[in-house]
Design a protein that fits this description.
Leucine-rich Repeat Variant, eight-stranded antiparallel beta sheet, two-stranded antiparallel ribbon, 43% helix, alpha+beta, 392 residues, 15% strand, single chain
């Protein structure tokens, strides 16, 4: 039977090429650490391989657990490949790295920095946010120096990423940062000196290691400062404050992303020693109070017939309403509330203009971006009522 013989030959050919291809990917992973040029070529080949390279990359990433300098650097370069791929396959591994990487060495700081940069891309995934939250709240020794006078890794960008993904724990993160961080590290104006750190990161080429030599400017006088970091713009971008003042950066974040829950952490700073800190604390309190009044609830609230309540943002741009006299197409932005009447058979639609309409809404799919992250698809027949929040 010729076709059977051909099938056997094809299977044998595939089986012999698979190990060779896997071995080739392992060679490319090894090339990531040889030289900048070898790294560039290996990254390009791995990106081209795409999903086929993911299992081998994940297996190689597990080597971080030894926490040697070489293993940390190797894992950081692998994470850069996942970042360039746009693949979330390494999110669980990234969470493990944040949980188990410890030590004061430069390589450990570099690995945590690269892991954070990777996870920030996938903060829509609640696992990434959980890992960041656990790091900030429960593992301060991994991001704060022993004397608690400077930050070892770049954690502040996570605040904006948490807020953008509507994670209510952003207030808890800000409260920890306001409690733990000093005003600035660690010398007063007029004193000459600076604190040495182990902060490090990979350059844009995904290979070269850079390190931040000082976290604070060297003061020559009360008004003149030296450079803040070996690569000043990179450092300032991640500290979010051009002079490296930690608490000022935190207060700016609180003003923009905090809620009323943060006020107990802000009020003590009204008596702080530095005027800039006192003034910004007051502005932050005013901002969160105004935010509560102006946008008390910007999310849509969906109540199902089974009693469940879902908060998020409905993605449907329009709703059709069939009344006894016409079929209407209503823009989502004009609708204040949709509810079910007492009979359970008709829908009552209340508009921001004050109109109140009664009719039937077809059983369409309702797409919702959840407040806690992720998406849900509901049937309109499952929904008892929707209270729409004002869109920003």
């Amino acid at each position: 039977m010729p076709w059977l013989k051909m099938l056997c030959l094809t299977v044998m050919l595939v089986m012999t090429t698979l190990p060779a291809r896997a071995s080739g990917i392992e060679v490319l992973i090894a090339d990531l650490g040889k030289s900048p040029e070898a790294n560039r070529q290996a990254r390009a080949a791995l990106l081209k391989a795409g999903k086929e390279a993911v299992p081998a990359l994940l297996q190689a990433l597990e080597g971080y657990a030894t926490l040697t300098d070489e293993a940390c650097l190797r894992s950081a370069r692998i994470l850069r490949v996942f970042k360039d791929m746009g693949s979330d396959a390494a999110v669980p591994a990234g969470a493990d790295i944040l949980a188990f990487t410890h030590g004061n060495g430069q390589a450990c700081a570099l690995l945590i920095n690269e892991t954070l940069d990777y996870l920030y891309l996938f903060f829509r995934d609640v696992r990434a946010r959980d890992a960041y939250y656990d790091l900030v709240k429960n593992r301060p020794s991994q991001w704060l120096s022993d004397r608690q006078d400077f930050v070892k890794v770049f954690i502040m960008q996570g605040v904006a990423a948490m807020a953008e993904n509507h994670d209510p724990r952003v207030d808890d993160v800000l409260a920890v940062l306001l409690e733990k961080l000093p005003y600035e590290p660690p010398f007063s104006p007029g004193e000459v000196g600076g604190r040495w750190t182990n902060t490090a990161w990979l350059d844009d080429d995904g290979y070269t290691v850079h390190a931040c030599k000082t976290v604070v400017a060297t003061y020559r006088s009360r008004t003149e400062r030296g450079t803040c970091c070996a690569l000043d713009s990179y450092y300032r971008e991640r500290m979010l404050e051009e002079r490296g003042r930690y608490r000022i950066a935190c207060l700016q974040l609180a003003k923009e992303y905090g809620s009323k829950r943060l006020i107990p952490s802000l009020e003590p700073l009204l008596k702080a020693r530095h005027r800039a800190e006192r003034d910004l604390a007051l502005l932050a309190i005013e901002a969160v109070n105004k935010k509560e009044v102006v946008s008390a609830e910007s999310f849509d609230r969906i109540m199902l017939f089974d009693g469940d309540i879902i908060s998020g943002r409905v993605q449907n741009a329009e709703f059709a309403l069939v009344t006894s006299y016409a079929r209407l197409s209503l823009n989502r932005k004009d609708i204040k509330r949709i509810e079910t009447d007492a009979s359970g058979k008709k829908r009552v639609v209340e508009l921001y203009a004050g109109d109140r309409l009664t009719g039937a809404i077809p059983d369409v799919e309702l797409k919702v971006v959840l407040k806690v992250g992720g998406e849900a698809v509901l049937r309109m027949a499952e929904v008892e009522s929707i209270t729409f929040g004002r869109q920003p």
